[in-house]
């Protein structure tokens, strides 16, 4: 279905069929392969036991009064003065067991519903870089125009399943009202699942209200199932900050999912050993998950892995490294042990959309697939360890994501596929281009890339010798030029707009946290 | 062991320690992970059954009188006129069962001995491109200078285990004597396992004789164990050509290993379905392997997979695609079924050492690792579907190969690695940079790349904003400038030189086949 958009009108579909890129249709890839498991059951148990000892003996800081109250009531050992909570393993495992193994999230367009968990693998746009970059304008602070551009790419590509965090920070909007304009853009330029940053009560409540309005939902309908989600990071080592906990608890109370992703860079905020960093990652993640299960038993959560290593010379984070790959795969083993969905990332530390960016991303994606990650953050557009949202990298990543989606399709092996008759027909002196067996199948036989250039050197040179980023540059420009937003009931759009205006008049959210 | 070379003199080791890149020491990576197996036993058996039916019902052309004679004597159904051989599955499986599951190859420097099979994974330099390319001189026909440069890189990098085919074709040497100069360069500039092209009796016999001389071996010692190898390609569909069979039989007779790699591009020389292409690949490979086991029962062989797809618009071969990945993984299943070592490739179809080259290579390597390939051809330096040997890509590939070698090291998970004491010591308000646990481990904790640039954008820009190929360019120049060949007994070198001179005076090899 070249260029077709969910909900697109017939006229668009026709117009785009010839001009926009050919892309795969919307679908949720199913990762049916056995995962790669670097460590055995005994080693896995040693990391689990380490995590339990951290929770029991060392404790985690919960810098949030309400969280402390809830955990104290649940019987945890809470030191109010230091905000340190110790919880025993029986309690933690009991709470974690209440979380579902899988769940769905339904955005305003129900056709974009996603399943989180099991074999499903979801790709999320790049989230949260402060800078945007493209070949024409270079690296610059993110603004609302770049934010909207990257949202359009997020919406356009069927291989991007969620409109996660801000694809770039729109720094030209005042922080007090940024979330209002940003959510408005997200909910009008995309119809995919959106995310709310846990940055204080007003922002989180505004986001939930806007998602409810955009879906045309009553409050009861909003709470009846997951409609959006948040992702919180611990402040490693061993600390959950106030706004993250506040937002997570607000979403949990209304049945909305929370991904908990500790920021355990080995050698910096966590031990230099992967086993130690993963024990700490697990302790920090399960501590918050246990809290949320106390708040609302059964609320959907996911175990987030971000463990990687740092360059020990400079302290700079590294991604897509051998350590990142193994940490992600072992995180998969841990997630399955706790029966929780796994979040990981398509990460790299390159400063340009070049070969290093591509191999670090490919290695990250290899790790995500072989770990059976359910949610792949930063799947399209990340550069410079998350400090750059790159237009060209976005397009390049989507090429890789599509290839992985195709890779996950089963390989048919019927007798007709084994093709003895065709082999006999062609014989030892022919070729298969004209064979009946080929003619019946060639259009859909192979994955067709939109970005790779497979021509020979002479043809490629004659047409300008364009390298990958130049070709990606041409593609994003075409997509943006042709973009039309997904349909939205004008009354709903008006209600969203009115909400934004009212909340702006009220001053938005405080900016002094 | 930065910059240390096997057999290097102490003076060199010292000098290089500071100036050459830091690289991993020589070692054979052990791939202990479970393979990815895309199809179930029933589907695997259907491909096997298809291969057997091709051999039994359709037959394979053996364009070589001696091969036909051997197979007729062994009881196969041989049609002398068409050169078509049909062999029943009982015969094929009986012959294949004689081949060893694993074997070693010992080059002139015994410290460079390699194991083929089991968990061992070997990387071979790029082989056979007609063109060389680098950033300074662009793409140009291969010559002896480029050939020698690329051999020096092959020798330098410890992650390249075999000096396989010609890293680029030295087209400035007359074809009648090219093999003599090329083998002389290979045996003097490297001390790793070398390969002989099966391009007529004279070339193969010369190559065996030169390997024997370089190793200081008697004829009996040469034949006592594998000292070199050849790789033959079928002329798909369903055909083995004369020179390939001749060379393979000559090596087999003297106990030297043969890799059999059909050239089954799906949609062109093989069915458009992967199952069909793999059935044909298997039939073509096993047909030659059965012949070689008749020639010398137990001779080491390997099952070569090269199945990929073509661009159905242009017919151009594609590599590192989803189809290539699955074909390679299923080839791994087939190789294990037949208890044969597997050869695959690090392939791509890009025209420049850019992002596409990197992701196609990374996906190819992912396929090789998850297939448990034992021999990875073209592991360093391949571009343009094998038409270009790229200096910069060679260096980039070695960075990827080193990362994969590090990835294959076990992840330690002792109690000391889980690091509860360090986590308690650092607590929630510190960081791990200065912790005792970190200090004791940080130097060897993580893989240190020689090519990746992990600095932040500002530092990277200030130092020239070099993208990956530019950095690779600087590195290969440094390596070539500092290169010293591995030690070789002057008497042996003189004997090699005399052999080359004598064979040149005799006219070398015929060029009219």
From TrEMBL, chains A, B:
Enzyme class: transferase
Pfam families: MTTB
Keyword entries, A-Z: Methyltransferase, Transferase
Organism (species): Propylenella binzhouense
Identification of the protein by name: Methyltransferase
Gene3D superfamilies in the cross-refs: Trimethylamine methyltransferase-like (3.20.20.480)
EC number: 2.1.1.-
GO molecular function: methyltransferase activity
InterPro entries in the cross-refs: MttB-like_sf, MTTB_MeTrfase
GO biological process, one term: methylation
Family: Belongs to the trimethylamine methyltransferase family.
Methyltransferase among keywords: yes
């Amino acid at each position: 279905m070249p260029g077709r958009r969910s909900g697109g009108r017939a006229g668009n579909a026709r117009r785009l069929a010839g001009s926009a890129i050919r892309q795969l249709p919307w679908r949720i890839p199913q990762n049916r392969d056995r995962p790669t498991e670097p460590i055995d059951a005994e080693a896995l148990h040693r990391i689990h036991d380490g995590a339990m000892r951290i929770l029991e003996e060392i404790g985690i800081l919960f810098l949030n009064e309400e969280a402390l109250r809830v955990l104290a009531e649940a019987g945890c050992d809470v030191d109010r003065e230091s905000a340190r909570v110790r919880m025993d393993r029986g309690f933690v495992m009991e709470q974690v067991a209440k979380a579902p193994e899988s769940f769905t999230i339904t955005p305003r367009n129900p056709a974009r519903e996603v399943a989180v968990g099991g074999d499903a693998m979801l790709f999320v746009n790049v989230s949260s870089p402060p800078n945007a970059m493209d070949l024409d304008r270079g690296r610059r602070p993110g603004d609302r125009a770049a934010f909207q551009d990257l949202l359009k790419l997020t919406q356009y590509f069927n291989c991007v399943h969620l409109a996660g965090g801000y694809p770039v920070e729109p720094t030209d909007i005042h922080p007090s009202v940024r979330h209002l304009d940003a959510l408005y853009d997200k909910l009008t330029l995309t119809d995919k699942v959106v995310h709310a940053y846990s940055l204080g009560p007003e922002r989180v409540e505004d986001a939930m209200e806007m998602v409810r309005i955009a879906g045309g939902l009553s409050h009861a309908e909003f709470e009846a199932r997951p409609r959006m989600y948040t992702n919180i990071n611990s402040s490693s080592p061993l600390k959950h900050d106030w706004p993250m906990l506040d937002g997570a608890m607000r979403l949990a109370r209304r049945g909305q999912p929370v991904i908990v992703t500790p920021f355990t860079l080995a050698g910096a905020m966590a031990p230099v050993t992967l086993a130690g960093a993963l024990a700490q990652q697990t302790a920090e993640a399960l501590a918050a998950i246990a809290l949320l299960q106390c708040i609302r038993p059964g609320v959907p959560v996911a175990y987030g892995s971000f463990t990687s290593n740092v360059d020990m010379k400079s302290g700079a984070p590294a991604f897509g490294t051998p350590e990142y790959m193994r940490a992600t795969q072992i995180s998969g083993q841990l997630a399955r042990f706790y029966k929780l969905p796994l979040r990981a990332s398509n990460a790299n530390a390159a400063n340009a959309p070049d070969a290093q960016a591509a191999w670090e991303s490919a290695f990250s994606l290899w790790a995500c697939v072989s770990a059976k990650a359910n949610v792949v953050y930063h799947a399209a557009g990340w550069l410079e360890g998350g400090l750059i949202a790159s237009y060209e990298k976005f397009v390049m990543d989507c090429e890789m994501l599509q290839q992985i989606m195709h890779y996950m399709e089963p390989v048919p092996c019927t007798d007709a596929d084994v093709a003895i008759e065709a082999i006999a027909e062609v014989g030892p002196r022919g070729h298969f281009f004209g064979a009946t067996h080929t003619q019946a199948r060639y259009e859909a036989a192979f994955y067709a890339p939109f970005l790779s250039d497979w021509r020979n050197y002479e043809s490629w040179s004659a047409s300008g010798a364009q390298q990958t980023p130049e070709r990606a540059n041409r593609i994003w420009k075409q997509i943006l030029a042709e973009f039309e937003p997904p349909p939205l009931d004008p009354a709903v759009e008006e209600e969203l707009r009115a909400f934004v205006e009212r909340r702006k008049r009220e001053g938005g959210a405080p900016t002094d946290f």
